[in-house]
Amino acid sequence: MAVKILITGGTFDKVYDELKGQLYFSDSHIQEMLRLGRCRLDVNARTLMMIDSLEMTEGDRDLILHHCLKADEKMIVITHGTDTMVQTAAHLGPHIRDKTVVLTGALVPYAFGSSDGLFNLGSALSFVQALPPGVYIAMNGRYFSWNNVRKNRDTGVFEPAD
Amino acid sequence: MAVKILITGGTFDKVYDELKGQLYFSDSHIQEMLRLGRCRLDVNARTLMMIDSLEMTEGDRDLILHHCLKADEKMIVITHGTDTMVQTAAHLGPHIRDKTVVLTGALVPYAFGSSDGLFNLGSALSFVQALPPGVYIAMNGRYFSWNNVRKNRDTGVFEPAD
Amino acid sequence: MAVKILITGGTFDKVYDELKGQLYFSDSHIQEMLRLGRCRLDVNARTLMMIDSLEMTEGDRDLILHHCLKADEKMIVITHGTDTMVQTAAHLGPHIRDKTVVLTGALVPYAFGSSDGLFNLGSALSFVQALPPGVYIAMNGRYFSWNNVRKNRDTGVFEPAD
Amino acid sequence: MAVKILITGGTFDKVYDELKGQLYFSDSHIQEMLRLGRCRLDVNARTLMMIDSLEMTEGDRDLILHHCLKADEKMIVITHGTDTMVQTAAHLGPHIRDKTVVLTGALVPYAFGSSDGLFNLGSALSFVQALPPGVYIAMNGRYFSWNNVRKNRDTGVFEPAD
Q1: Chain C residues whose beta carbon lies within 8 Å of the beta carbon of residue D103
Q2: Cα–Cα distances in angstroms (integers) from residue B8 to residues B97, C161, D21, D86, D88, in the given order
Q3: What is residue D137's predicted lDDT score, i.e. its pLDDT?
Q4: What is the pTM of this model?
């Protein structure tokens, strides 16, 4: 019973460029985070892209959908920037029938001491094992169905859309 | 839909005494961890005891059971030392009918940079929302029913007992 | 025998804006860092500005010089962005006679786990107590006189200019 | 102009044994700390022992003295447990003529997020470059001559003995 992790970038994986003084994407921190969590799930991680979710195109979302559909695993976690996580969930939602897909991310880069990333990864990997098939977002310790969720721009918190 | 958190101590909450050079229990880190996880669940936390789980008595376990039974919440997370977490789960298991109870802990104190605590708390708070009524242990990114789990003393990893 | 700390901003004190996904300046971390270092020096800290050193003007440097000259303390540490730290040191150098002034900063924000900030602060506070009067830069575990130092743009490392 | 670092253990280098739930000594963290501090000093580090300073014998102190005397470097930093750091400094003090020796340590293990270790290492490496020959302790952001220092057992703070 393996879990697939599809990595797309987002704040999760931003690191600090010492020379330029800017945040940028390097390699994913997922393996390090799984080690820190002493995670013993059978996990297959694959990096699809490493981008800011504000730059994600429809073509990128088709690629994510394609990888969800062709995956052998019935449980899929997607790490994703929070800015357009809701759009990607809505892109996947109507097409996923027999798998549980959970999107998660972080408000603060994992490389910061104050990141919510490790908490969110533990949360997403748990929801994906226990929720029925469908597409969900796991943030703030909660889960939301793809067709009833929004990110509150003022607070940064995910909440039901209605 | 609130979640009850019952705090009993364990490695989770050990801190370092600078003067004596020893680990000891101070206040719980749960509130700080919930803040770090940007958790927006409705959580009621209560400290029942603050002890090493090797020192936990049957009376202590009766107290935990009592608080589970009388809680208004249908979802209960218990933070607990890993050494006797399996015994406490077995103590609760036969008596819990209509609630979901999830025990979790940490192999390394939260105050250490290398702790699995934040990952495990995210995991336990998610399983408790998504699993059917019963008593479970959430460790290593997985969940185990109270009547089929053991801690492997050689590796520190939780695994099915059979 | 007190030490004056003049705070001007720089990478040292950048934090992460969760809503905008950008680095910005908030309050200084100096007090927290002194607490972490269990520092028992008699320290008077004052924030003069909170800016990126690339935006520092001659007027800003005059202000820093003014505060160095009028300070009662004979030992002064200045936290400063690394990009123009050399220019500010050169601005102060010819005017400081009877005081020891040490500029320091960080390549990575203190809020990141991988920051060099705490090491550099410990270093600067020590050099300022032990070096003869003059203006110095303390970075990379070394100290440099204001008239023989440059920042290597390719490596981010401070080194003698000649 | 190289600096010798002699490693003897102490709280600095204690790590957490996940299986036994105890602190123990593993490898030294010095190299990792020098990397974090972006230290560019020419450093030669050598582990002499890896023990709690309460267990240090006169023979151990003779060994440390021997390594100080025979070292080619004129600057020597010794990492040491805080409990008997004063005794070791007193053991070395009368015999060191033409070198600067600085002992330092940590009240909290480096592996803890709240450690003073990185601050103290930056401090000791700076004092050793700037102080005249002699034997010193660098703790709490200050330095003390070997013949006028004590550790206050009630506060954990180093202070002048008289």
Answers
A1: none
A2: 22, 59, 17, 40, 42
A3: 98
A4: 0.90
